[in-house]
Specification:
CATH superfamily of chain A: Hotdog Thioesterase
Order of helices and strands of chain A: HHEEEEHEEEE
Strand content of chain A: 35-45%
Radius of gyration of chain A: 14 Å
Oligomer: homotetramer
Largest interface: A-B, 26 and 26 residues
Helix content of chain A: 25-40%
Distance between the termini of chain A: 30 Å
Chain lengths: 144, 144, 144, 144
């Protein structure tokens, strides 16, 4: 799930710039880009009052947003700077209650495509390899 | 999808109180409870900078959060005041780009259960019956 | 979920003919078409040794096949005679163990489309309105 | 996705015996067990008239059945001889049209559990590493 040999079609700095320009709520929400490779992207979300939920855990919608962003990065790593790529479907299973600590979302593309790309995202605490959630989803890529 | 004859096991006022107490980010995020019936719940989210996304539309994670909350309400409408009920899986399809206007999430339970409850949520603009997203999901209910 | 006013773009007799010609295993497997409307289709599967599973119930793959076929019919009811329409994703939840009796799959389209169509399928025993499974899915429609 | 060091809780020969005894349609349908490890299982399905579909490809329900069986094996590899474990939900994405050749379904458990186990299945042609479908799902395990 780390960067592979082929460089991404969108450099990590350019992805960060794209998010800041088009989705300022990403940074404001405590999300950050950790890594990008060809067909892969790792995002991180900080634990905060905003992302927490009853019972001292991270909320489901926060994990969904993390999966969605990581998959977005993985898609753009292959198609380049296409901000208007949009999620078409997402399936998420919550496997364990994560502690109130930073989470990583590690996305990789299983089926690249010019119009539709499909991938999966493993979510885990930053300091623990055991997955707390797993998502799969499809992005639709607008064609110029 | 409107309230049915049997009254909900959790009154709408008690559900609002539960959300305010256990998930203050719900109200802060612009979400509100519109209706509850036995096995059904309608939630609303306002359109704001926080919920918007590139292209003048509502973000996917906002729609996920809306679906998740509406399903939560529908589950509690049958099992009562159980704040620690948690999403175990959720599948969402984004069908059309919604305009930047308030959205409703209308949830109904298809399989009630003491330990697991399953239902679906239709998401649409407040002033338009055409669905913009559709979700299905399971909640796990802790047993005392 | 019954036929609606607008007639289907593919008549029920033509759908049966299409299945017999392109997918003879459908009839051989005990599946039959019950009803078609604009955006809806009901399929039936008989209970047999082939469709049964340990514990005196209908197997999961049989219910998946029923959902897939009913959704196929609902898609063709709007796009007409396009045998090469294919499932692109399907999500199914098994809600209750059905008895070893005929099942109905009632599909309806939630999002028609020229390239992608999305819908849901409720599966129940022929003589019982309570759902035993629920599926949602997307079909990809080849463009001429 | 190959067998790991810890031996499976159900030997491959015992899994084959269980299938033959409780689900004779598995062998009759052309499915066979290829490999089992702790938390993993690979199943194979032959290409035949029964599994084919219009356009010279393997049918979606055949791929679903393959995923379901491989995940069943992966679950039993951790919980042992529990024939009545049942699928509770399954999500499948069809990524490419497979040719009419044997398929492998490679399952691995992402979340073991005494009551619920979750895993994923990669489906590919026997002679090609590129995935043609990807599934995730949950099994419910009856407790004695």
């Amino acid at each position: 799930m780390t960067s592979q040999e082929r460089p991404p079609a969108l450099a990590i700095a350019d992805f960060i710039h794209l998010l800041d320009e088009h989705m300022p709520q990403v940074r404001a929400g405590g999300f950050s880009v950790v890594d990008m490779g060809w067909g892969s992207c790792t995002m991180r979300v900080a634990a905060s009052e905003r992302t927490s939920r009853a019972g001292g855990t991270i909320s489901g919608p926060t994990m969904f947003a993390l999966a969605d962003l990581a998959l977005y990065g993985a898609v753009l790593s292959q198609v380049g700077n296409v901000p208007l790529a949009v999620t078409s479907d997402m399936n998420i299973h919550f496997l364990r209650k994560p502690p109130l600590r930073p989470l990583l979302g590690e996305a990789r593309i299983l089926k690249p495509g010019k119009r539709l790309a499909y991938g999966e995202v493993l979510i885990r605490s930053e300091d623990d390899p055991v997955p707390v959630a797993h998502a799969t989803g499809t992005y639709a890529i607008p064609v110029g």
